Amino acid sequence: MRRELLKFLFFAVLILAAPLVFSGGYLMNVLVFVGINTMLAVALNLLLGYAGQISLGHAGFFGIGAYLSGILTATYGWNAWLAMPLAALVVGTLAGLIGFPILKLKGHYLAMATLGLGIIIYIVFNETVDLTGGPSGLSGIPNLSIGSLVFDNDFKNYYLIWTFGLAVVLFCVNLAGSRVGRALRAVNDSEVAARVMGVNARILKVQVFALSAVISSLAGSLYAHTMTFVSPASFGFNFSVELLTMVVIGGLGSVYGSFLGAALLTLLPELLRGAQDYDIIIYGGLLMSMVMFMPGGLVRGLPELFRRVARRREGAGNA
């Protein structure tokens, strides 16, 4: 446990010191989105990496959190700090209710069911024009503020987002090392064996599905108040695939791997602006490559790669 705490403190210091190195400019804005995507990737990794339950609809929960928080503040004048937990509560309840029937499915049937859920949510965003603004989106969402401190620039938003991001990372690291985390891994390895050991697999899967949705909703609310505008295009199927790619590339069952995957996949579009129309093909290619050549993801594959290089150098030196 002490080792995990030291690892988290080292990670937190790097994150909090990053603006001192990358201060100002467009890169700060990208790092804000790294924080949001890290929260989403960690949330999906709880479900996929630890519990072994795939979801292609998490962009929908992200979108519901963004829209609920945006509508309550921009349309009805709610305080944003009240709108965010209410949105998370609604999303968590919805995920819990949906999770009971959906999580009876396994494998590609579960993938198709969550894909259908994400598409339904996306259609609702587009069609409820009076409420969400439809394809044109919802504008006028206020920035978050604490007293006279308004989070209205990238520097302030960076520390706001990463305060929540680090809290989510710490919570999930502790959860992974707890009895619940061990039960999730048992369900992932063999649901039948987990049931024999006394784990209520069905309830546990629904609970982690709801928890994952709540974290996604929180990220959505932060996204809405950072951008001050949301539209359905941000919450479609492509983004669900992107989230899945982040988790697999970073490393299934690794909280810090989720950060690596989120950082890579957030920065990658900036390097591939000329190939914007082919982004889904590039993500698919990365996903296939990681599964074939680095199945443990970056968090496990990179140390192994460094060890191989070191052994080859030692072999060449001895020769």
Fold blueprint:
Elements: H1 2-21, H2 25-50, H3 58-75, H4 80-102, H5 107-127, H6 129-132, E1 138-139, E2 145-146, E3 149-150, H7 154-176, H8 179-189, H9 191-196, H10 201-227, E4 229-230, H11 237-250, H12 255-271, H13 279-293, H14 298-318
Antiparallel strand pairs: 1-4, 2-3
Helix pairs in contact: 1-7, 2-7, 2-10, 2-11, 2-12, 3-4, 3-5, 3-10, 4-10, 11-12, 11-13
Description:
The protein is mostly helical. It has one domain. It is built from 14 helices and four strands. The protein has helices at 2-21, 25-50, 58-75, 80-102, 107-127, 129-132, 154-176, 179-189, 191-196, 201-227, 237-250, 255-271, 279-293, 298-318; strands spanning 138-139, 145-146, 149-150, 229-230. A two-stranded antiparallel ribbon has the order 1-4. Strands 2-3 form a two-stranded antiparallel ribbon. Strand 2 and strand 3 form a beta hairpin. Helix 3 (58-75) crosses helix 10 (201-227). The longest helix has 27 residues, at 201-227. It is globular. The protein starts with a helix and ends with a helix.
Describe the structure concisely for a colleague.
With 319 residues, this protein is mainly alpha-helical. The chain has helices at residues 2-21, 25-50, 58-75, 80-102, 107-127, 129-132, 154-176, 179-189, 191-196, 201-227, 237-250, 255-271, 279-293, 298-318, and strands at 138-139, 145-146, 149-150, 229-230.
What key attributes describe this structure?
single chain; 319 residues; mainly alpha; two-stranded antiparallel sheet; 77% helix
